[in-house]
Write a structure and sequence with these properties.
The protein is built from nine helices and five strands, in the order αβαβαβαβααβααα. By secondary structure, the chain is mainly α. The mean pLDDT is 93.
Length: 241
């Protein structure tokens, strides 16, 4: 589980742990990862905190090695880690664009490659990528972010095609605006942000919660979803249909 120190990643970690799954809690912020892992352990689950930047293959390799040593082979992967940023398109720099792609897209590529051998050996695996509804509808002042998440949706479909014969499914969840996350806090600082407008933008008139995403992810990671692959499961209150 990447990006699991807080928000959606932490909620998914707790939800999967309640299903009896041992969790590798990976984040660049080790303090937050340790807090998530400790809460899982105190609730009777199994977890280990891991630190790595997903865009750094050496760090990912080391974290994956430690996870295998402590909890065994990896057969479920949730790619949640990522960064977000707001900037008008005409003001975007090469550095901003490259950093977004490096973390959100290349990082997902690296982590998936590094854990894939375990799934191949087991002839069973579940990959769930957390993308974004901004990849479906577009999002002003987030061209680089939307583009990186659109690439995640395309990557999901390709992995589903390649890995399906090996017993591995790959799906993605594009959340809408979810409260109590780093991204929602960033958005709230924007002068153009309106919580009321967000609530009224879809037929379900409430904010999204990390647990909403966690519930969908738990199903996709289960045996019950074994005939579901290459799909985009929108958890967005109906904002995008």
């Amino acid at each position: 589980m990447t990006g699991a120190a807080a928000g959606i990643g932490a909620a998914i970690s707790h939800r999967l742990a309640r299903d009896g799954i041992a969790i590798g809690v990976l984040d660049v912020l080790i303090e937050g990862a340790a807090e998530t892992a400790n809460r899982i352990i105190s609730s009777g689950g199994r977890a280990v905190a891991l630190q790595a930047s997903i865009a750094d293959r050496a760090q990912v390799k080391a974290a994956v090695h430690e996870l295998r040593r402590k909890l065994g082979p990896i057969t479920i992967l949730v790619n949640n880690a990522g960064i977000a940023e707001f900037a008008p398109f005409k003001e975007l720099t090469d550095v901003q664009w490259d950093r977004m792609m490096e973390v959100n897209l290349k990082g997902t590529f690296i982590v998936t490659q590094e854990v894939l051998p375990d799934m191949e050996a087991a002839r069973w695996g579940r990959i769930v990528n957390i993308s974004s509804s901004s990849a479906q509808s577009g999002s002003a002042r987030m061209a680089h972010y939307s583009a990186s998440k659109g690439a995640i949706i395309a990557l999901t479909k390709t992995l589903a095609l390649e890995l399906g014969p090996l017993g591995i499914t790959c799906n993605n969840i594009p959340p809408r605006f979810v409260m109590n996350t780093v991204m929602s806090e960033q958005a709230a600082l924007s002068a153009s942000f309106s919580r009321q407008a967000m609530l009224e933008a879809g037929p379900i008139r409430r904010q999204g919660e990390p647990e909403d995403i966690a519930g969908a992810c738990a199903w996709l990671a289960s045996d019950e979803a074994g005939y579901v692959t290459g799909q985009t499961i929108g958890v967005n209150g109906g904002r995008y249909m």
